[in-house]
Specification:
single chain; mainly alpha; globular
Amino acid sequence: MSHLLFPLTVLLGALAGWLGLMPAFVSEYSLPHLLLYALIIQVGLGLGMRPDIKKIIKGFNPRLLLLPVCTIVGTLSFTFLATLLFKGDSSSDLMAIGSGFGYYTLSSVLIVQFKEAAVGPEAAASIAAIALLTNVVREMFALISCQYLSKKGHGETAISVAGINSMDVCLPMIVGTGKSSDTRLVSAALFHGLILEISVPVLISLFCG
């Protein structure tokens, strides 16, 4: 149920804006940017305050880089194929949407901030809404499939499918009681999620710029 709170909050905000109930100070230029910076700072604080961060750093293996790299390349490759189907839409916008890796909270906010000046608030909000739905669907698909993949012995596949959620909501399903349950997968899943969390703002800013 908690995963539905953010989409519901967005819908309530859209309804309040449509009915003209939004306070005037909300539309001020400085406030949305301050909130965005606060959100990005929270991401950094969340990474630094993880109780297992020292363990992850000490157990770092350069080979672990291959998994997030494969996830990023695979996701962006299929997103690029999608741009060939949706020829009427901006390919850079579609690539930005695909760069969320399941991180619907940050990716949609970033897209609004980066695109608003170029295309206007309405168009930016539309792109952000698509990004929100796309990444929510990815997380739901991961929640459904990760446990099955892990039980079949495809732990690395489950991590990649989970995207950024490999280090939190999908982690118990990835390292459950199946064939893929081992400490190696825990480190791989956590490091995979950390790299993707850092990559999301970088890639979205690149494609939106």
